Amino acid sequence: MSKKSKGTRAERELFHQLWEEGFGVVRAAGSGSTSRPSPDLLASNGKKTFAIECKSVKGEKKYFSAEELEQLHIFANTFGAEA
User: Fold this and answer.
1) Tens digits of residue pLDDT in 32-50
2) Above 80 in pLDDT, residue 53?
């Protein structure tokens, strides 16, 4: 399975988990393929809204670069979400 397929599968799994927890969820097709900040998922339960960058890893941890975090925060602040 390719890295892209694994990532897509992880996004879909989280998508369904969030729905089961009472969140409305949108998967952003093509996130990461634009020069503008764009998260993988947007989730809201009417009280809280989250911008989510989803990564699939072999181990227990994934470290994000400062630039990745900055881009996620830029989007979240513009959208009115939490990162």
Assistant:
1) 667 788 899 999 999 999 9
2) yes
CA angle in degrees (0–180, nearest 5) for 51-10-14: 50
Report which residue type is found at 55.
K
Q: Which CATH class is domain 3-79?
A: alpha beta
Catalytic residue of the set 2, 5, 31, 33: 31
d(C-alpha 47, C-alpha 62), whole Å: 28
Q: Give the neighbor-by-neighbor strand order of the sheet with 49-52.
A: 24-27, 41-44, 49-52
Q: Please check whether residue 19 is in contact with residue 52, taking contact to mean a CB–CB distance below 8 angstroms.
A: no
* Whole-angstrom Cα Rg for the chain: 13
Q: Establish whether 31 is a catalytic residue.
A: yes
